[in-house]
DNA sequence: AGATAAACGAGACGGTACGTCGGGTCTTAAT
DNA sequence: ATTAAGACCCGACGTACCGTCTCGTTTATCT
């Protein structure tokens, strides 16, 4: 960024044009082929306007993701823990793979070399989802569906890990049935064997 | 690539200089900041020489990974399944993070945009390790340490997933204690409790 | 220019701030490095205000010159023609080079590309001085110090030409001694020798 | 310039294309509107190629002038001093005003802010002409057409000054008749009055 | 041992995109 | 209604790498 632009004088039409152009270009060529130059041209906006409001290409795309992700915001709670986890996992899968090349994975990659972007990514995209995930687990715990000493971090790793596993290796995302299998296994892992249930869980 | 160079006249010293320069630059700036120009300069090699033998930047790094992967020792089998899994997971973690910025980390993350690279990565680096992992599980199964219907793919996902999870989100790799916790959970997930499963745990 | 501002509501403080900033920046970086942006910033004035009142960068500098030119004293007439010419030439030299980099120098050199600026420059700065110069020559002529057919345009060219010559070629201005030499030569050129001209000199 | 390109590997066709494009663009829009971007586009050459071989826009134009000026290289010596001076002055006038806006005046202007360019301009364009001018005067002096103490610097100023005088003030260049008048005056200035010739010139 | 043919270093080249600067126009708020 | 502030579109700047393309010059085989 050049200097503090701090102003409510920002022109909303430019902001929208940039985001729209970015979305289109991402869909057409993928995040990897995206350039500021092209965004500016497509949006009918000067490059300076982009640099004034966004520190990097990744930041523009992050704003884009924000808008898309905001739609599916509210955490589900149907009472059926497995089903709700299935819903949350599906949402992440859809976010990561709307098309063959998702802007989200691009931003994740770029964040590796851009600490500011990485922070924004965590704060705005990742941590809220983790929080909701743990909220749901906590409610299940309160209702006795999970032991009091269930390790939520492990649950997070075990359930979301496979998604990134496949993402990294360029494999297809898990289908719903496999998701169910995963969830079943993980819930079983969180619940110690029944013959020790009383002793272990209440300790 | 320009034309088929097929020749045993290739100069080994140039090959090594390129790989060494690439490794150094990766460690210094990360894979994302790597340029052919810089490799050529550091290696004292002409750009043409690089383009003659490698189709892309990713391919050079892949050769680098090959070297790293070749070091792999034989799969451990001490009789203690949990300990052996721990060893295998640690080896992968060390491969991915010998330094803060590892070429391997970068090439895996970046493989999102290069399907060829991703495939080569799977074939040369990932699948051999998966095979060894499943071998070990199979032996454990034969010795009655795992049920006959244990799902090895799920085991793979649950154990390796967390590593990629952290890789993608640019978090630190799990420490040995946490690895133990993970393995304990996963083994528990693979071993369904002998009875009372429905009522107590997954309901 | 944007639109006719015709208003006596113009704020004098802004006008002065612009002129002062322009003078300072000219002296610091030279006319060629002058930017409207920098003038506005230094003057604490918006760019719009500058564009409203001056059609171009050159016009601002021209106003500056006007101020400098207004200082001009009355034409000297001490009775000594050579001394008076020396005085007039020195005044022009001082106007052009009060500092190493003078706004006037720059605007004259740059006037090549702005006919309007060049015309304004002639009318406001140059021609008044030419008029005074010719006045002085005319008085000398009336007093018999110059022949009745002395060519004043040639005199103008010969006396002022060397100044522009050095200006164009970015050389230092003539010192007083050299000025005397010049004037001596030119007066000699205007006064044809009473006899033997053909035979001795120009043959 | 970026780094030392020192190479006879320079492609002559590119050099010519750049100079040709520069000439055309100068003629079409004038030196002031000339941009490196446009030269590169018109010449079908990358910007880097221009920056590699020329330190600035002015340097390109200077090369252009060099070629044009090299044509009229040899100093005239017909035995008629006045006529030869006329020829030399005309050549300079033509160089400065081939069209309304000459590249030469542009380079002269730019040289004010670019010491390197100014030096190149002096060495390659100005000083050779001054040398030839003084050569001619020296020959005339040896043949007794000028006094032994004739001041060549003054002669230079008086003869070339008027050209720059008019150039600076955006006036038309002197016509041949006026040139003759000027030369006559200057030669007269250089020749002290006949009745003091012996005493003054030999002193 | 000399010839020959490929790989090689060097780096010029046409491109594309970068991130920055300044030009000149336009809008908003405040004085 | 002028002003300060500054966002905005535009065009050019000078730079970094890209991948291609010569140039001689090694260097390693094959006569």
Number of helical runs of chain A?
A: 10
CATH superfamily of the largest domain in chain A: Tetracycline Repressor, domain 2
CATH fold-level name of the largest domain in chain A: Tetracycline Repressor, domain 2
Shape of chain A: elongated
> How far apart are the termini of chain A?
54 Å
Show unreliable segments of chain A: 196-203
The CATH architecture term of the largest domain in chain A is Orthogonal Bundle
SSE order of chain A in H/E notation?
HHHHHHHHHH
Number of discrete domains of chain A: 2
Largest interface: C-D, 50 and 46 residues
* Share in β-strands of chain A: under 5%
Counting DSSP E segments of at least 2 residues, the number of strands of chain A comes to 0
Mean pLDDT across the residues of chain A is 88
The CATH class of the largest domain in chain A is identified as: Mainly Alpha
Oligomer classification: homotetramer
Helix content of chain A: 55-70%
Largest β-sheet summary of chain A: none
Rg of chain A (C-alpha, Å): 21 Å
Domain HTH tetR-type (chains A, B, C, D): 12-72
DNA-binding region (chains A, B, C, D): 35-54
Protein name (chains A, B, C, D): TetR/AcrR family transcriptional regulator
Pfam families (chains A, B, C, D): TetR_C_11 (PF16859), TetR_N (PF00440)
